[in-house]
Amino acid sequence: MINAEPHLEVVDTAQTKDELLSKAFDLQPDVIVATPGLTVSGKLPLFTPVYGQQSSLLVMISQKMESFQESILLDADGASLLQSTSSLTSGKLLGVKYELMNKLRALVKGCTQPVSFKPKHQGVEVFRLNDAVDSVSDTKPLCVVVLGASTGGSTALEYVLRDLVVQQPTVILVAIHMPEKFTKRLAKRLQKLTKWQVEEGRKGMQLEANTVIIAPGGQDMFIRRNALKPELLTLDLVPATSPVLESPSVDTLMQSAAYCAGDRVLGIIMTGMGQDGTKGAQEIRNMGGVIIAQNAETSSIFGMAKSAIENGVVNGVVALGQIHSMISRFAAERHLSHALQSELSR
Length: 346
Known about the structure:
- By secondary structure, the chain is α/β, with parallel strands linked by helices.
- The chain is 29% helix and 19% strand.
- The chain folds into 2 domains: 17-129, no CATH class; 143-345, 3-Layer(aba) Sandwich (Rossmann fold).
- It contains 10 helices and 13 strands.
- It has a 7-stranded parallel beta sheet, sandwiched between helices.
- α6 packs parallel to α7 and α7 packs across α8 (304-310).
- The protein starts with 16 loop residues before the first helix and ends with a helix.
């Protein structure tokens, strides 16, 4: 029912109380729809110690709603957000759908910044959302840099990050062909070389400025965009389907970045064997982003970059020593990406 709505998306489901809490903390959904049995004794989960003022709304659904009148989320007028239904039989399902969808549409309207609201029932802290559909944030959109590499990539990445300075909000996502556990070691090693926050990617992780995120070995990492908050980008992970020597997949990460961030994406294909990254680079260009490739002279193996160049999906070819300055320039001038594309093509 919810996924059928054009402006609503189910980001995940939960079968147990522990799973509900874990996914709620990781994904930070705007609204949680649950039966009282999935909460603690039918009470509202206390997300505020973790979320602070970013708590989610909770909609309760129950065949015996009258048993939980003191724990049902209230709106500003004190009325329950979902009225009780004696039975969720097929004959009443359409009525339940109609009421639930109306309530969800009202809740997610705008869906930008929650504000606290004190309900009449003591001991239950709930939140409602601001109506700010047309509001424009002063915060500049996040620039997304996607870097793909294979053989020789860890050394090249160290060189790029060591002196990297970016003035605008930027996140760097890295897919480098490495087995499980090696990517975690790489993240720890890089953290000692840079002031950027370096982490291995996690499911549900929100993309934030001044962060370098390494795709975990054995898994493909990709970006998700919140349908209600287009500027909110999070990560998802799935078991790698590519051959061991070609995972984590550069193509998967680049393609998702292109779909979610469009012309705010700078893709960089560096040293490495094979053709991984060529398809992803094409998607980034199709969506208005910029692609650069490391040149043969500074590459340990000129395979991935060569494939992208020969397939005509790069805007320019640069030496390893120029990549950090290209990142800084793209982040500062991404609103002039078309001019940058033309310059790189010359």
